[in-house]
Amino acid sequence: MSAGRPVRRWLTGVGFLLPNIAGFCAFTLAPLVMSFALAFSNWDILRHNLFRKDAIRFVGLGNFSRLFSDLQFWRDLGNTLFFLLGLPFAIAGSLAAALLLAQVNRRRVSTGSALVVATVVLVFSGLVLLSGGMAQRGVVFLFGTMAAAVLVSGVLTGGTLYRTLFYIPHFTAGVATFVLWKKLYNPHTGPINAALRPLLDGFSSAVCAWPGFFALGVPALAGCAMVLLALVQVRRLRRRWDDGEAGAAAVAAGILALAGPAMVFLHWHGMGTGIAGGLAGTVGVALFGAIVRRPRRWGPIPTNDAGLGSELSLALIGVPLLLLLAGAIRAGPTLPAIAALGIDPPDWLGDYAWAKPALMLMALWAAIGSNSMILFLAGLSNIPPELYEAADMDGASAGQRFWNITWPQLAPVTFFIAVMGVINGLQGGFEMARTMTLGGPAGSTTTLSYFIFTEGFEIGRLGYASAVAWVMFALVLVFTLLNFRFGNRDAND
Prior knowledge:
Among the domains are: 111-200, no CATH class; 203-344, no CATH class. It is built from 22 helices and no strands. The protein has helices at 5-38, 62-68, 71-83, 87-106, 111-131, 136-156, 160-171, 174-184, 191-209, 211-242, 248-268, 273-292, 308-331, 335-341, 352-368, 371-381, 385-393, 398-409, 411-427, 430-436, 448-459, 462-486.
């Protein structure tokens, strides 16, 4: 073989790859390098353009020092992290949808339970349309035809139609979906509030009829639920410590998930922030010491960070639940007075307190049938059926099969979905906020990506916007490294 033949082959390969390489350099590499350089400059479109003679200056770390003292940046970072609280619920919803579709495909679904679920969904949807003004005959015809068509088609296609219906929201254009949900959230003409009005009127009547129960009973029940959850959490941490499944860092994270809502609860009831934090911290330290200093009766000695990923994941679900119960305790005594004046449906996108939850509900609806569901379906299909057969022979229940077979076998898929969800959550939020709320009300739905757009393309401070973009890149990198460090211990084939 001649000496020039390898060179010709290399040049031929480069020639085929040249269009892709050129596109990457022109549209990815060059903007990245330019953005990194701009982050250390004072480039402002209004001052540095063809019609002004002001020179672009190198400002070093000036943009970053200004950034970390910018209250708007911290507010938008807080909004971005708040939206990430919906990620565990999206993963759980996607997994539930995948489990249902897998059972339909394997013919293992119970006909009775399926009919119950379908009946509840159809009745609720029919009531929503009736309360929105649709004629009764139209509702009966619509749902009768739809139920028959879906049932027959789903049976004939072996569940393929069901998977398609679940995945349809992912195909819908994002802006079109946001406009639709904006109409649904309309406080005056939207069907959501039209369905809530009679329910809230009935709830107001019930509160007025039994004011003592709602003023005292609801806070008491919520308080008992908080205490019960705290006891379950402490007992679970102690058991995991004894079994060698949780290290000191995991126990500390689990205790912190209780101390944080406790501090908020005490602050809501008139205690100063410092005193509430000190009291909650003291109790938390005492619980931590009681768990980690007790002699371990069995199990190996774990590393300090063993089980930390699991505790952080559970905290994302447990903390909002505890805060919801704390809110019920606080709101219970005021319910009779509020009900006497009438409880109106919320202004979903115009109220500061409801704007973020409204967008999170919409994102949850879209996430349940997205790529996460498809990935879980693929993971479920790869679980060896021999494991389920052995569990059936041992008399394992459905819950035991899930916790001991399905969930551990899905660890790699869940880890991938969690990592991608965190990355997309830190980078996303611009389209829905731009379309539905314009970042309002009062900046409650402005995320970091929206902040970068505003600074760079509305105000024109491209240097400052580039600095924010690289800080967001650093956040994505840190969260991803933390996920790989603590979240993939069980994600092995």
